[in-house]
Amino acid sequence: MSYIYRYLSLLSCMMILIIFPHRSLEAWELQTRLEADAFIQNRTPDLGWQVVGLVSARMAITHRTAQMRVEVTPEFTQIGLTSNFGFYRAFWRANFGSHFRMTLGKAPITWGRGYYYNTGDLFFSASSSGITLSSDNFRDNARWLLNFYIPLGRFSYIEVVGATGSGAGSIVSIDNTTGSVTPMQGDSFHYRNLAGGIRAQFQWLGVQTELATAYLGEKESLRHALTLSGGIAQTLDWYLGARYDWNPQQQIATKEKFELSMGFSLPWTFQNRQRLTVALESIIRPFGKWQRYADAGVEDYGAEIFAQLTYQPISIMSLTTRVVFSPVDLSSYIFGEVAFYPIQDLSIFLGVGAQVGSSEPAIFQQSNPNSISVYLRSTYTF
Amino acid sequence: MKYLYYLLFLIACTPAVMAQTAQEIVDRADANASFDHATMQATITSTDAFGTKVYETQIQQSGRDDSLIVFLAGENKGQKILRTPNELFVYYPDADNVVRLKGAALRQSAFGDVSYEDLANSKTRSDRFNLTLVSTENVDGFTTWVIDLVAKNKGESYPKQRLWIDQATYTIVRAEYRSDSGKLLRELRANDIVKRGNQFIATQLTFQDATKKNSSSTLRITKIDLDTPLPTNTFTVANLSF
Q1: What CATH number is attached to the domain comprising B64?
Q2: What is the pTM of this model?
Q3: Which residue from A311, B70, B208, B218 puts its CA 20 to 30 A from A152's CA?
């Protein structure tokens, strides 16, 4: 445990150094989020049933003026006997008049559109496959970056980003049984792994249009994307996206990496406050694999479908079903969750996930076809 | 004799001056709730059978078209909602991302029984409804005009409405919201009227869900600033994600 205290002290010192120059502490806002998770699962037949516990805490410290915003969110995560320290967010953002805005530090890059599949999210995978479906936010990945945001009218802008490689989110990881300390950033700061991109977003015939290009050093790949989104008759919101990878070294387009994503969402609020939301998304890789291959990765397959149904009958409870389905081999991962909100800002989730349909499914790459996972998750924000 | 003609002329004209049409009354009430530029802080308390939730918000408005809601505390702290006539832009601070919604989200509940349409609607009531002046009535100590509204087009959340408008301040002090069949769905009571410049503003609005017992949301305006002009980029996507 002494290692934990040592790194907590180090993080505290860094926080004091950041905060000290801004002595008017009343201008700082604090928000703390605590999360405790427990998973019981049998994803692999040889390991049998496993119990995994996870506890995390993060505190967002924000200072805001009319032209500047500083946000520092140190994060501590304990998974089993391993402790991780890092920054969930740590950035400085400033407006330079109305001409442009600059962000420096660790901040999210969320390009494109899509809840589970998003081909416009060039710095990250288009698919969220592999992430547990108990999450309620599949895309909040951050990187160390320098970002220039140039507004072009009320709803249009150009954004230019230079970022580190995909490295781990934590700064250090500590094995509490051996006391070994592992730096987690790896080669993400190496110049060969750096990434950069530009996107333009504007409205065209009532359709929000996003054009984006990014170079990812670690993949030696140039990616291009087009994302369109809009609504139909104040009833339904839709999006459609496409991207492909171009390898400048070999002067070829990797046709297997041509991907399309699409989806829609339909929310209803009934007069007695009951709410129902339906969302359906799909990713299609026309040149991907349309048959089961033993050595294929989950992102090599031709198509995948994601569906979500959320029903909130009363204000303190909601029911959610999420399904990821592969039309390639008819395998699917089905997840059901009950969420309770007993008091404001406290959420408790109880979920069960099961893999069905194929002995070697084309989704999630779980080797146990009948695997079942039970999730218990609670979050409290204050 | 000349004075008698004057007197007869005045008597003849008085009803024409005093009698206002339903449209004039409702237009003045709508004008009362429309600001060139306004920054308000509001506490919204949403109560139902299972408990109470409190939201601290800042609401900025410009005319009838644009409004910006910022959550100041709680689980949604930092979330911002920009409402324009046909679109909703939502800023999610965790993802540092702005999502544009054009669909049904526009008609969804913003907090409890308060919808986005309650906070801002780009069209006046006389554009959207046929209006009939029914009677006058005393309500909660206010002398009011009672006006019935019937939607001109489909798509209104509440196609039939009845408004009680205070004759002294042209403020809506009570309202009933009904379905097409006439079923009562929601009620509004407003009080604590304050004067700012030439406008009267009800600083406490209580929406009651008539289909559920013990379900209500109270919007209490704690701070009003109608004097400070809003920066030109207030209702932009750039400001939303700052």
Answers
A1: 2.50.20.10
A2: 0.82
A3: B70
